[in-house]
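To start, one record:
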Amino acid sequence: MAGKSDYFGLGYIVSVILAIIPVTSWICGAITRFMEGKIVAGLIRLIFGFTIVWILDLIFMIVKKNICRLLNI
């Protein structure tokens, strides 16, 4: 499956690799949320990105091909 995934429209395999690495998942997740115009969600990712959010992102990226979106504001 070579479809687009969540991190900047990159391919699925590249996005999963980025999600596996905690630092890149943290940075890419925050940038993705800021690019969507979700300032509060981006700030939450910057503050809590190394905790449960990273594990949720990894699971969601593998299963749904999207990052976890806890807040839509």
Q: What stands out?
A: The helical segments are 12-20, 22-35, 39-48, 52-63. The chain has four helices and no strands. The CA atoms of residues 11 and 34 lie 20 Å apart.
